[in-house]
Amino acid sequence: MSPFIVILSTGSELTAGRSLDTNSGWIANQLFELGWKVKKFITLPDDPNLIFSELQSLQTLAKEKPVLAIMTGGLGPTEDDYTLETVLKLTGKTSYSVEKAKLRLTKIYESRGKEYKDILPNVFRQTFVPEGCKTLDNSVGIAVGFVESIGENSYLVCMPGVPSEMTEMFKRRLVPELKKLYPRENLLQKTKWLWNIGESLFQNDFIEPNRDEFFKEAEWGVTANRGYIKCIFQSTNQNLLDQIINRLETQYPKIISDDVFSNVHDRLVALQLTISVVESCTGGLLGKKMTEQPGSSSYFMGGFLTYSNEMKSNLLGIPIETINTYGAVSEEVAKAMVDGLCQKTGTHYGISITGIAGPDGGSDGKPVGTVCIGIKEPNGQITVHRYVFPGNREAIRENASNTAIFLIYQSLKSKVI
Length: 417
What we know:
By secondary structure, the protein is of the alpha/beta class. The chain has helices spanning 12-15, 23-34, 48-61, 83-91, 99-111, 114-118, 120-123, 163-181, 199-207, 211-214, 238-251, 260-271, 285-290, 309-316, 320-326, 331-345, 393-412, and strands at 4-10, 38-44, 67-72, 95-97, 128-130, 134-136, 145-151, 154-159, 188-195, 219-224, 228-235, 256-257, 275-279, 300-305, 349-355, 370-376, 382-388.
């Protein structure tokens, strides 16, 4: 039986509006991809009475049905971190210090000098958990997470509120535990990405016409990202899922993909191909994305950040007349950029990005969001793609860099490994 899932975020900075709760949405999305749906979000200030009241209500609900409560925040070393003491009050348990975390914390603080060593007793509270719980190691920070029973087939999960710590703990420590606690043996899932299409258009064009045929037995969901939507289909019927994916690939042959970030990495490694980048409006973001996976040094050789026209001309050998004639944001300049890049680096693949990220700089012919992406393939062929991406400056830059990787994916998928 699937649990009644509630996500609780604690922190007065959240309820005061000083910080945004990004944890809840991220956790809910991850759970959906695992086959579970969240029923409720709760955001609470650093008030032990309010936190206790909510947990007590969930403990009462657990007498009627399986409950999974996932709470983030309140595990730090300061006096406004109330999670542990509230859980101890709820369960009537005592706590103990996790030796592995205590040793790690001691080593870190002693290496920082006497001032830090003197405050060790105060920060040790991050290493305490309820007796008899399942601990969740923190490989990014110090605070130990834990899973505590609150009823039959019901559990309270407590994790740090710092997103980098929480996401790592969730993926590496919590997910294996959840799969043991709530197995979904018969649930099958397929995921595909569609590029430069909105959620509403996808639902109108694909889901609605196929609702009677496919989606009486299959669940579907969409998560929107910069440049693409992730389409998730779940069912106990493998044949039905295959039919859905076949229909999807037939309807969207030019914009469909698997996970481009891992796929591009795997294929470049397997094919022993190299790649370099030259960026303007994305300011190095594409290079960052290309090097996020371990092992990327085997194919990513480097590149150039040519923000100004002078740098485009001086570093890449583009005649200034070409830039003046067509404009820095043009198919002609994007082509010249990637050609000059590959002449300098000698890589099999090259990618160039030039665009108008805004908020200023747009015109009727080239509005804000106009981006040209050039791709040079191992056979020397250069193609340039022009887009007008929606959103603010951050969104446009993310869209452009993600789409550039998708274009490499399209080229690589035809190559035989």
